[in-house]
Amino acid sequence: MSREESERPAPRVPQDTEARAGWLLTAPALACILFIALFPLAWTLWESLHEHDLRMPWLGRPFVGLGNYLTILQDARFWQSLAHTALFAVVSVAVELTLGLALALAMNRGFRGRGVVRAAVLVPWAIPTVVAALLWRFIFDSQAGIANVVLMNVGLLRHPLVWFVQATTAWVPVILADVWKTTPFVALLLLAGLQSIDGELYEAAATDGASAWWQLTRITIPLLKPAILVALIFRTLDAFRVFDLIYVMTGGGPGTSTEPVALYTFNTLLQNLEFGYGAALSVVIFLVTFGLAMLYIRGLGVDLGGGGNRR
Amino acid sequence: MKGRIVARVGLILLVLFAAFPFYWALVASFTPEATLFREPSLWPRTLILDHYRALFTERDFWTPIKNSLIVAGFTTAFCVTIGAFAAYALARIEFAGKRAVLAFILAVTMFPQISIVSPLYMLLRRLHLINTYPGLVLPYMTFAMPLAVWLLVGFFRQLPRDLEEAAMVDGASRWQSFTRVILPLTGPGLATTAILTFIYCWNEFLFALSFTLGPERYTVPVAIALFRGQYQVPWGQILAATVIATAPVAVVVLIFQRRIVQGLTAGAVKG
Amino acid sequence: MARISLAHIDKQYPNGFVASRDLNLEIADGEFLVLVGPSGSGKSTVLRMIAGLEKPTGGTITIGGRDVTRLPPQERDIAMVFQSYALYPHMTVRENMAFGLKLRKQPADGVARRVEAVADSLGLRAMLERKPAQLSGGQRQRVALGRAIVREPKAFLFDEPLSNLDAQLRVETRAELARLHRRLGATMVYVTHDQVEAMTLGTRVAVLKDGVLQQVAPPMELYRHPRNQFVASFIGSPSMNFLRGAVSRANGMPQFAAPGVTLALAGDAPVRDGPVLLGVRPHDIVLSAGVNGGVRGVVSLVEPLGSEQIVYVNVLGGQDLVAAVGADASPKVDETVTITIPSAAMHLFDPETGGALR
Questions:
Q1: Sheet holding C286-289, edge to edge
Q2: pLDDT in tens, C139-170
Q3: Domain B61-269: what homologous superfamily?
Q4: Are A33 and B105 an interchain contact pair (Cβ–Cβ within 8 Å)?
Q5: What is the ipTM metric for this complex?
Q6: The domain containing residue C284 runs over which residues?
Q7: 39-68 of C, contacting B, C-beta below 8 A
């Protein structure tokens, strides 16, 4: 590409009606998003500043300012749910990244049956989380579950384990289910990144006598950093918002010992009908997610204006 | 050489790991409940169709399927159409505030759904839309619209710029160049976006759980999650339902896997 | 057919990059004007501004007497052949060529007749129902041409149309373009970085550097009377040799002196203080064997090209010169030769401004 063309920003057609056309075309979609997403968010914000318990409508809806937030700070169940969410996020993302990278590296080699592997690995991603949760719930069921049978046959267990009766063992099927379902997505992201690495780099390294490990750590991983970062942020965001999986697998239990923040908020809102407090919880979740999202957009230097300047 | 064997073995293990739950669900769905609970085994001995029959005669599994099809179908059609116009403008037309709009749309894809459940609930209640189809399509647009726009922007950007320039020089207005030159060429991109959007809508759980009241409007994920047995969890039927829910998905994925992968990575990796 | 005028055209991008600086250019009706220059010279930008794909930050553009500066490309009635051809992949050759006419709501049979006539003239008749993906590079290029010709526009714009073709095809297509121009008599504006294309195709050639017009003249005039050092070195291959020295008077005659070189200049050569650059084209240098006064040098490299030979000579006590000699001469490496330069072939330039000295 000539220097002239690489310095030239995205070509523009000189008309002020261009801008009007642009806005006209974007308006419907934007309006939908604004109305359906932004407006409710603003409403949630406003609601979080009030006390609003639908079980006791005679109390009205008094304005309490930051009262709900102060309560959150002292709410043990909230902090526990945050801890659960963090535990889930850290472990599942770590496993998914490692496995995903391994899978991507293996798939990058190109071999017969690659399509089958890709399809096999995509189906878990494509099914509803609810279905995945049920499948694994069943596998780890204490009576009908095949997990116990296999583990006992292999000799790792002497008696069938009731997995879901305590939090420590309950996390195993939960995280396993999440890993099973979302590693494909991570692997695909990383595979795309791998395929954009110039093969000649490896050839040059091989002629210079570099080992496979050296090639992995000095060429692959550094060049894969942007893709790893994308996968990391996407997965962390998703892990933080986890709901479906745990609702179906443990219901947050036993008790509330596996309850993540999203489920706690859900229970507060639609079970306890504490809308004001639930709104405050929602805002907190939103802020954390938003913070993480900003990290993504900033940290990657996502080119939002168009691909023209970086050909 | 060793590396290749390790990779090959690893892949086989991985495919087994991915396929195992489905295999097991399939086997179990054909096994009588008594056998399941007393002596579950990897290799089926007796096979029955009772669970499947019960699913449709006792439980009316058709209704959730119908509901999911309608909701996912409408949402996808609407979002992909409206989103295509916006995506074209965002990918190709220069106008002030474009960057802000793109950043906004990206940010909305990262919204935690739980944060807008309660106001949406109140809004839908006021509009008398709880437990209706529009009552699900509307909230679904919060994630389907940004998703569709984001994916389509990625596809539109891949089209060579000089095609539109040639069309303009040939005398086409923006609209004519969009309909006669760009749209025909984005067929694959539109299809992929539609497939991915449909999948996300079909799999959605939280909104469907919160905004429906009874089995007549449950979508497939909600219906399966809320199966209630008289005495115990009806695992046989649940697993039969999961098999039915998974089979079409598997077929779609097998047919469209290349497109799906393209869509996922185009949107994400290129930022 | 129309004349095109560019008056005081400025183009600056928001990031500060200046693509055009006070450009003034008149393109006569029916002329084949070539815009040539290195990468970043602004030549493509000028073309795109004429097309309406970019808007100048200052100045006016008129086509056929009409001020089009504010008009979008659709309303300028010009046709453009893009570097990558920009053929509509989902349309057949026939549909590609008919696109512009159909947009203007021309009657169907008139359109079909025109398309077929142009296809015939370009040898594309057999390919009318094929899609671009099924054509070779050369065929695609002809379709792009056909699409432009069919429209009978006021002017044709070409953006480096030959650069994607292999060398052989490039030479053939070049000739075809020249013949096309003669046949249609249309106004054509052609952008290229290749000075050979510029010289062979243009009625006039405009040399651009860093957004500034250096010189616009018929090819031979550029070759023989370059207005500055840049034009002198850009036009002609191998490029002109430059010697840095000074001019003085010796025995009443102007003389040029540089390390290892003393040359008599033409009688009307300007004599001035300060350093000058002497330019001489490789083809004008005469090499003779033996040593008989004048400038002497040693041959360091000979590149035989078949029709001629490029000889690199190291001037004794001075710099290297590149000479081009005929095929029957036989210079040998390490041979000492005498270098003769006819005074008519000498060009003098001011080293600071680059301008030619008359």
A1: C286-289, C336-340, C295-304, C308-315, C320-326
A2: 999 999 999 999 889 899 999 999 888 888 88
A3: MetI-like (1.10.3720.10)
A4: yes
A5: 0.85
A6: 241-357
A7: 51-53
